[in-house]
Design goal:
Structural class: alpha/beta
Low-confidence stretches: none
Strand content: 5-15%
Shape: globular
Number of strands: 9
CATH topology of one domain: Rossmann fold
Largest sheet: 5 strands, mixed
Helix content: 40-55%
Mean pLDDT: 91
Distance between the termini: 71 Å
């Protein structure tokens, strides 16, 4: 009997068969923790994917629902003793679903809207400008007072994520920022899409800190999107197109390709897989590093900050890229900082790309658990290295009334550089 998948990027059969159904992944899975449903665990989802591949199950609405409830956080990969490549299996299966147009029209339209906006900086800039006008004009207060968005869960989720004061257009960073002091190498900096519009200071501090650490920083113009959101949504061909375009902008002139967004870094490290035999993609992927990895050993002249800080592990940094120690080392190296460990730090906050906009109810439940853990630390600052996490957790702190400042680690490091180091 033929399987439910076609021959265009099907989930790898060996990967599906690698699962021995031991169940070690179950307690690590955020949706299984909340729902206690086998089909909403990694083991259950692998079973569903394998059943579809073997022709025992069609791509039914129930099948799609259980796959869509997955955050793609890859915590199961960290736990799995058999090395099941769950993230790639999930993305390939979503690619099959996406090409069939099997989801309800409203879901397809919402996804299409988000992917036509978020990965396109110029369009996103217009949207951010409109959001600022919406807030400053008083229209947001009227909408809130009249509960006009009450029937529309996804629109409510989008509005709730808006920062109280979305930033205006930031001055573009120079294309080349030279190293200061002894040169250690040359890096290419990915600006990201959401990062450059909503968190421009993160990119500015990333470039400044890297130059202080001895790196020439190249920031290619018109570098575009890395394709991470498309990949997670199953739009694999679109992700490939964006990846190839990005490769042409960075070329071979850098020692490292640096990102300060966990989701982008995770996707870029997998270009070698998704672009097949493309040697340039393999070389590019081998050079990708999170900014914390290059700064962790830098001898920066940091001044004292008397702060209690806790750290949330972005899923695609901890589980996708296996980077855990370096951000903590950076934060602990700031004189005066008391770093308090966050319980369940590597459990997803509910952001997961655009998951919090497509599955707002489940995302809110995960956010509530994360906020409980944050409140228990007593920290005044929460640091995390991904724009989606920054938006999601900041939104939760606002709504719960937690006096916690949510920052990227490089923003704290930037504060700790003395003024003479900034200017001299």
């Amino acid at each position: 009997m033929p399987g439910a998948f076609d021959l265009m990027d099907p989930p790898d059969t060996d990967g599906l068969r690698a699962c021995v159904h031991c169940g070690i992944c179950l307690p690590q899975c955020p949706t299984y923790r909340l729902l206690g449903e086998e089909m909403d665990s990694p083991r259950g989802r692998v079973y569903l994917m394998r059943a579809a591949a073997e022709g025992r199950l069609a791509l039914t609405p129930t099948f799609i629902h259980h796959l869509d409830l997955c955050l793609g956080c890859r915590a199961c990969e960290t736990a799995c003793p058999s090395g099941v490549p769950f993230g790639r299996l999930l993305e390939a299966t979503r690619g099959q679903i996406e090409r069939r147009g099997a989801r309800p029209l409203s879901e397809r339209l919402t996804s299409a809207l988000l992917l036509s906006l978020l990965p396109h900086p110029r369009r996103l800039a217009l949207a951010v400008g409109a959001a600022r006008l919406y807030q400053r004009s008083g229209l947001q207060r009227l909408v809130s007072a009249g509960r006009l968005l009450a029937p529309f869960a996804r629109l409510r989720a989008m509005e709730a994520l808006l920062p109280p004061s979305p930033p205006g257009a930031a001055a573009p960073l120079p294309e080349i920022v030279p190293a200061r002091g002894r040169k250690r190498g040359t890096v290419g900096l990915l600006l990201g899409c959401v990062q450059r519009l909503l968190f421009p200071r993160v990119n500015a501090e990333t470039a400044r800190l890297l130059t202080r650490a001895g790196y020439d920083v190249l920031i290619p113009r018109d570098q575009g999107c890395c394709g991470a959101l498309h990949l997670h949504a199953g739009q694999i061909d679109e992700a490939r197109t964006l990846a190839v375009r990005l490769l042409t902008h960075f070329g071979r002139a850098v020692d490292w390709v640096v990102t300060n967004a966990a989701g982008c870094g995770s996707a870029m490290r997998e270009y070698g897989h998704w672009l097949g035999d493309n040697r340039d993609a393999e070389v590019f992927s081998s050079k990708v590093r999170d900014v914390s990895e290059l700064l962790a050993d830098a001898d920066l002249p940091l001044q004292r900050l008397d702060l209690t800080v806790t750290y949330h592990d972005p899923c695609h940094l901890a589980h996708g890229q296996k980077v855990r120690r370096e951000p903590r080392r950076l934060l602990a190296a700031i004189p005066g900082v008391k770093l308090v460990e966050l319980a369940d730090s590597d459990v997803c906050c509910g952001s997961a790309g655009v998951y919090n906009l497509l599955e707002p109810e489940m995302a809110d439940r995960l956010l509530a658990l994360k906020l409980e853990r944050i409140a228990a630390t007593g920290a005044g600052v929460l640091a995390t290295g991904n724009p989606g996490c920054l938006l999601q957790i900041a939104r939760g702190c606002r709504e719960r009334g937690l006096a916690v400042e949510v920052l990227h680690p490089v923003e704290l490091l930037g504060r700790a550089l003395p003024e003479r180091a900034r200017d001299g």
